[in-house]
Amino acid sequence: MPVKNRSVKAFYNHKCMQPNPYRIIWDLEMLTEKLIPEEKTKLTHTERLQMHKPYSYCYVIIRMDSLLNYEIVSHDLYRGPDALERFVLKIKEELLAIQEDLSAPAEMIMALGDLKAYNEATECWICKGPFLKPAPEVVQKLEEAKHNLLEIKE
User: Measured on CA atoms in the order 111, 112, 114, 119, is the torsion positive or negative?
Assistant: First the structure.
């Protein structure tokens, strides 16, 4: 039996949450068909009366930008005998498009004073842990090493 206060998994680190830029809202409709006696005998422990067969789906993909504006980027509605297979294929295509969009680097949006705060920051804004910025001499040595590697590669 579940034990109180030890059986519930919950997320408590809310300060580390970031909004998800994509939402997929979908609905899959089913028809029910009565089972024939041969299909009922195949089951041993469960008494099944009906079979669910998908016949239509609809989905909407909503994107949220960094300014919390919502936009419908894609949608589809289909009715037919192959609804489930088509739904899976369409969602896979949409996920590839979403991954491609998310892999592109986003432009930083900074308000007045944000650059100064960024340059003066000494701790992570998510975990509040300290971080060290490399000294200018270290950055220069890294740039020189990178340049040397590029020359060797050529």
Answer: positive
Q: Match 């016949």 to its residue by tokens.
A: 55
CA atoms within 13 A on the CB side of 125: 6
Cα separations (Å) of 54 from 46, 57, 82, 107? 21, 8, 8, 42
Q: Backbone phi, then psi, for 47, in 5-degree steps?
A: -95, 110
pLDDT at residue 52 tops 70? yes
From residue 8, give the alpha-carbon distance in Å to each of 5, 12, 13, 104: 6, 12, 15, 37
42: number of Cβ within 10 Å = 8
Query: Residue 149 pLDDT more than 90?
Result: no
Give residue 131's identity as a one-letter amino acid code.
F
Q: Which tens digits make up the pLDDT trace of 21-45?
A: 899 999 999 998 887 776 666 656 6
Of 29, 136, 127, 39, nearest to 84 by C-alpha is 29
Sign of CA dihedral 80, 91, 76, 100: negative
